[in-house]
Amino acid sequence: MYRESGVHDLVGVLIEGLGAAIPDTWKQFSIWLAVVVVLTGIFFIIF
After folding, report:
1. Which domain holds residue 35?
2. How many structural domains compose the chain?
3. What is the pTM for the complete model shown?
């Protein structure tokens, strides 16, 4: 069983680093893409 707080901290650091490295348009696109991938994955798991 992994520590969720540690994972969230790591993800937060990665997101902040990427946010500083890439333009806002790419940030919005990557967030949208991640949401679509997650929703698609959930859809396939349920159905």
Report:
1. 23-47
2. 1
3. 0.43
